[in-house]
């Protein structure tokens, strides 16, 4: 079963499941975002989603975290059916920073919409349902970290997000690095505001985007091609 949990120090979420859960989610992300030539002006957002898919794929391959999880096989069931079986399954997991995963949820709204337009019967597409389930799990995890009134506001904003077409994805690096530098309590207190900030593309984002566009103009580069000149730490206090 796919699960999303807050990390101990509120830096992000832990995406967990068995091999098949994670492999299925990874394939669904690839299915919905399409190949690199399909949706122009969404290259930056597609790249960010591929980064999360990369973590999920490596988690499924055992390159990230591995943990035993109780599978419901009690001693009573073993005796009842007269066989020997383990009482734990192996789950794999990987962590993703809160700003990164929240932006992924917003960006997936666009990719879901675009993908639905390509299908004759989108309501019967299993990958679309899996993506919506993934989005709902992330927001449900967020629900456990913020007051109810703030959560209802967040739900409303995430249901009415503007398009991420030509989004300045460098802004997510900016938010990620700020979040990493915060203490646990500050992360917890700031999380609702970060969620809304990403969902509504507020004045801070618009000012940041204008700076990126200014940098892109002389070289005639696309907005996603401008490098964010800051490095992530090797270790994160998850």
From TrEMBL:
InterPro entries per record: DUF6904 (IPR054199)
Protein name: DUF6904 family protein
């Amino acid at each position: 079963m796919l699960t999303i949990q807050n990390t101990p120090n509120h830096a992000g979420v832990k995406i967990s499941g068995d091999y098949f859960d994670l492999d299925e989610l990874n394939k669904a992300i690839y299915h919905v975002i399409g190949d690199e030539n399909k949706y122009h002006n969404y290259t930056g957002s597609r790249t960010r989603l591929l980064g999360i898919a990369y973590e999920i794929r490596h988690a499924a391959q055992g390159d990230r975290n591995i943990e035993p999880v109780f599978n419901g096989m009690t001693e009573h069931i073993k005796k009842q059916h007269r066989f020997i079986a383990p009482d734990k399954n192996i789950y794999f997991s990987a962590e993703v920073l809160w700003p990164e995963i929240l932006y992924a949820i917003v960006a997936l709204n666009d990719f879901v919409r675009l993908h639905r337009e390509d299908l004759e019967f989108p309501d019967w597409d299993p990958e679309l349902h899996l993506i919506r389930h993934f989005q709902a799990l992330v927001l449900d995890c967020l629900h456990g970290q913020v007051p109810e009134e703030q959560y209802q506001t967040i739900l409303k904003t995430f249901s009415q997000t503007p398009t991420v077409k030509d989004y300045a994805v460098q802004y997510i690096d900016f938010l990620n690095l700020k979040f990493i530098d915060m203490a646990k309590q500050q992360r917890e207190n700031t999380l609702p505001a970060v969620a809304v900030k990403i969902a509504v593309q507020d004045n801070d984002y618009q000012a940041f985007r204008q700076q990126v566009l200014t940098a892109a103009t002389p070289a005639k580069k696309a907005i996603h091609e401008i490098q964010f000149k800051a490095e992530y730490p090797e270790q994160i206090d998850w």
